[in-house]
Amino acid sequence: MSILDWSVLAVTLLVIIVYGIVRSRGSKSMDDYLLAGQSLPWYHVGLSVMATQASAVTFLSAPGQGFSDGMRFVQFYFGLPLAMVVLSVTFVPIFHRLKIFTAYEYLESRFDVRVRTLTSGLFLLQRGLSTGLSIYAPSIILSTILGWNIYWTNLLMGGIVLVYTVTGGTKAISYTHLQQMAIVTFAMALAGYLTVKLLPEDVSFVDALHVAGKAGRMNLIDLKFDPDSRYNLWSGLIGGFFLQLSYFGTDQSQVGRYLTGQTIGQSRLGLLMNGLLKVPMQFLILLVGVLVFVFYQYNPSPTFFNKQETDKLKNSQYANAYQIAEIKHQNLTTQRQKAVIDMEMALKTDNEAGQEAAGAVLRETDDALKSVKTDVTKLIQKNNPTADTNDVNYVFLRFVLDYLPHGLIGLLIAVIFSASMGSIASAYSSLASTTVIDIYKRLIKSDSDDAHYLNVSRWSTIGWGIFCIIVAQFANQLGSMIEAVNILGSLFYGVILGVFVVAFYVKSIGGRATFWSAIISEVLVVLSWYLNLTAFLWLNAIGCLLVVGIAWLLQRTLFRAS
Amino acid sequence: MPENPIDNSVDLPPFARSWTQLYTIVMGSLAVEILLFYVLMRWLS
Question: Which regions span the lipid bilayer (chain B) (predicted)?
Answer without folding.
Answer: 20-41
